[in-house]
Amino acid sequence: MNGEQRYDKGKREYTTAFLYPDGQEIILDHLDVELHENGIEIIGVKNMRVVSESKMNSLVSHYKAIMEELGIKTDPENEKTPERVVKALLEMTRNDGVGTEELDKQMTVFSSPGEALIEVSPISFTSLCAHHHMPFVGTAYISYVPDEHILGLSKFPRAVEWFSRKPSTQETLTIEIGKYLVGRLRPRKLTIVLEAEHTCVSSRGVKAHGVGTKTTYAYPKGDV
Ligand SMILES: [Zn+2]
What we know:
The chain is an alpha+beta fold and 224 residues long. Helices cover 29% and strands 32% of the residues. It is built from 6 helices and 13 strands. Zinc ion binds next to loops.
C-alpha cells in the first residue's frame, strides 16, 4: 500500500489521510497506522473512513455554499473552515452504515471466574444527534453479571466509542450498545445507562443549560 501523505499528521484533532495514485483517499485515525519508507502498515483499522478526492472536494464546496447562503463572510480566520467542518463530520460519522466486523475482532471473550457484578464506569463519549447533527456529550455506566464469559475492561469504552461515531438519538445509541454487548457476552444481567447533555438543547431552541438526559437499557427486558 503506497501513498503520499496529504495532511499534517502531527495534529491530533485531525485524522491522517493519504492520497493514493488512483485518487482514492484513505482517512485513518493516526493512532492506528505505522509509517514505513515504502508505505503504511495498518494496525487495527477501527476508525477507518475512505473518501475519494472528488467526494472530499464536493463536500467542501457544498459547505462553502452553505456558508455563503447563511451570509457568513469569508475572512482569513474561516478560509479553511469548510474543510475543517467536513473533516470533523467525516470523523464523527465514520461508522455510519459500517458493520461491526472490525469491532468484533477486538472483542475476544474470556471464561468467567464467577458470578460477580462487574461495573465499568464512567466511560465518556461524544456523539452526534440524529435530528440536528449537533454533538451530545456524556457518560456511560455499564454493569453486568456474567454467565460463562467476560470481556476485557478496555473493550467496553471501545464498544461505546464505536457506536458513538455516527448520528444517533441517545435512546437508539443506548439500545445499540446494550444489545451488542449482550450478543457478545451472553450475560445473566446487563444494564447500561447513558447520561448526556445535548448541544441542540443548550445552544439553540430553549437554550437550556445543564439539562441531562438519562437513558437505560436493561437485559433481561424490564430488569431496570
Ligand atoms: Zn438534536
